[in-house]
Amino acid sequence: MKHINIGELKNYYNQEVTISGFVDNIRNLQWVQFVIIRDATGKVQVTIEKSVEENKKMIEIIDTLPLESTVKITGKLLESPKVKLNGMELIPTNIEVTSESKEELPFNFKDLSNVNLDTRLDYRFIDLRNEKNNFMFKVQSTLIRYMREYLYNHDFTEIHTPKLLGAASESGSEVFEVKYFNRSAYLAQSPQFYKQMAIASGMGNVFEVAPCFRAENSNTSRHATEFTSFDVEFSYINDFTDVMNLEAEMLTYALEKLKEKYGEKIKEVFGVEVVVPTTPFPTMKLRDIYQELEERYGYKVDESEKTDLTTEAERLSYKLAQEKFNSEFMFVTDYPAEKRAFYHMRNSEGVLQGYDLIWRGVEITSGAQREHRYEEICKNAKEKGLGEDVKFYLNFFKYGCPPHGGFAIGVDRLTMLLLNIPSVKETQFLFRGPNRLNP
């Protein structure tokens, strides 16, 4: 008999079905047993009448069965309006215990309000049984699915690049060195070089969703040493505004589709609205933002700090975007070239042809037009003091390379902001930070 998810049971009234799941709750009354079974798609009530002789064996099983054990149950599904849980009940003919919970749970995963986050992360497999946490990853998965869908609809190819590198990528700093047989290797900070290799190969438009590694000793709510990055690169752009426009359109498409599918449930579970933005997203130059923050909110920083947005400036820029543009998103441009990677293009005046995207007061993206001209990128690399480590990368541009650009979005940070979760520690399936390498 085909296995049926609990979430699809409404299609099987008055039929014999087999379900499997965790024992979520048991109410053992004088004349009847009510057993709630849970799987990843929902819950259902199993009703066992004690007066029925054929139920004796099943009653004995439930009498001694610990909660959170797993079972396989066959029975007839009835539509029962009197049952508060989805208006249905399963009348079983057979119960098989597939695994038994052997110990008391380390904490009550149904109420995490007083459970220390480190304890939750130590027992992440229990923590994720919480319905809210479980749903969070359905939302994350669905959002990424729609971002992918947008790119597939625009003729992008999904690629998979290596995470073990023979040379330290990008700046050469903040990388993890690992032993690789009789030599050193490095974990990839990003797929940037290989995305651009794909462009030089003539692949046109590419993207990747994959782990990235940063050896940053940062203990903040939005940093991790390993995270999932959604990386995009595409060819034949006119300038970096093409990159901004594509990202804005992709996010708008994905958020609109997500709202259609899960908007009401997200509001119910997380208490937040999925706000679908309008395009184009507003854009401001870095220096103009600092000027407006000072004029509007009295926020001042030393000139030396104005080469990037401070954490407080990011937070205030959300307020500014809402008040000035009625938008949750804002692109920030005109960063100093010396503060960005050598492969970002500069115009004839030396202005960086790139941007950051701020959403709800947090930077979620750095994007840019890339330097594709061999002489220029060699000069930029030399200015940064990069030599042999990037020689293999510079070769990509020796034999012709289309004008191109791209961006990267941190999936965990995106989820954190979407659902108003306090930290990426909760939006990563398994968090990795300076002080956490297990489970």
Would you kindly provide a written description of the structure presented here, covering whatever features stand out?
The model has no long low-confidence stretch (mean pLDDT 95). The chain is of the alpha+beta class and 439 residues long. The protein contains twelve helices and 16 strands. Helix 4 runs antiparallel to helix 6, helix 4 crosses helix 11 and helix 7 packs across helix 8. The longest helix is centred in the middle third of the chain and has 31 residues. The chain has two domains: 94 residues, Nucleic acid-binding proteins (OB fold (Dihydrolipoamide Acetyltransferase, E2P), Beta Barrel), CATH 2.40.50; 257 residues, Bira Bifunctional Protein, Domain 2 (BirA Bifunctional Protein, domain 2).
